[in-house]
Amino acid sequence: MSESMVESFLASVPVTLRPSFAAMVDLQKRLSSLYDEGCRQWPQLAVDPVHFVSFLGGHLPADRRASEALAAVRAGDLYLTFACSTGDQTALLAFDGRFMSEIELALARMRVSTTQVEEVKQLVRQKLFVADRGRPGRIIDYSGRGDLRRWVRSIAVRTCLNQMRKGKRELPTQDDRVFDAIAATGDDPELAYMKERYRNEFRHAFEQALKALTDRQQNLLRYHHVDGLNIDEIGAIYRVHRVTAYRWLEKARDALVVKTQKTLRAQLKVEQREFDSIMRLIRSQLHLSLVRYLGTERNDEGNDQVPDTPGQDPAAADQRPAGKRRARIRPKGDDSGEPS
Questions:
Q1: Alpha carbon 335 to chain centroid distance?
Q2: What is the pLDDT of residues 108-159, one digit of tens each?
Q3: Residue 91 CB: number of other CB atoms within 10 A?
Q4: Where exactly are the structural domains of the chain?
Q5: What is the separation of C-alpha 141 from the centre of its chain, rounded to a whole number of angstroms?
Q6: How far, CA to CA in Å, does 314 sit from each of 178, 235, 241, 248?
Q7: Closest CA to 35 of 91, 87, 78, 88
Q8: What is the pLDDT of residues 265-313, one digit of tens each?
């Protein structure tokens, strides 16, 4: 069986990595270890080891060293997704029990109704596990190199946003909420006028401020506000202490507010008291704006390719190619590489 595992694995790995893996003296041991880890985490599942390592090999990146690629695999997560991809009912129930609550947590931050949450759950199930026009369910797109919880949450958020757009129930933009709140304060006619007058100015200022942030700052905001990651999880992605991750996130938020404020200050001819009120409301409801601008889909057709790459050197985060992990900023239609 062990020799069959190695043969099946080598037949499925990228051609560029095949010689390196073939020369790996402990390959059989490492494959068995990954399979055993999957069994340990999901003992209720009956997964064929030969088929599992073939699935694993087909999900390894061709642009990494063989040893590094194998070391980065999250065996338990990939083990479960493989079992789900075969239609195993026990695996599907296990997935539901473990990850549907992640969807609830992610969508709770978006303030959607219980009915909408249930709709999104069903859509995610269909998207991940049901073949569409000859294409297998999207669960096979999970590479096994990152946290499956984050991957599922990302798909859920983007599915929810997409449904809101399709049903003309899109989340209100930050400027809508802010200026609605301003106008409601005492029903001041002047503030009501300001609400209608300055919507476009805020939208423009926020977009420009977001564009001016670095790649890492945009990704930090997306991880926290869209994907729902906490400080410890963000720190794990960048391999830094949680205090450092917290400091980076706060600096990113502060930079966004300061840049928005600077642009608005140059555009809005209002008294300081009124301007300060606007900025307080912007700060208090920043989350909804970031969900909208950083969580929108890449294109109208939708694409659920989710980056699940594990932690990397933080300095490299600001040097990624723009088409790889950079946040998408509406209304510019560049490809963010993010899940949809």
A1: 14
A2: 767 778 888 888 899 999 999 998 888 889 999 998 988 898 889 888 888 8
A3: 24
A4: 2-73, 96-166, 174-325
A5: 14
A6: 34, 10, 12, 11
A7: 78
A8: 777 766 676 667 666 656 655 665 676 667 653 333 333 334 444 333 3
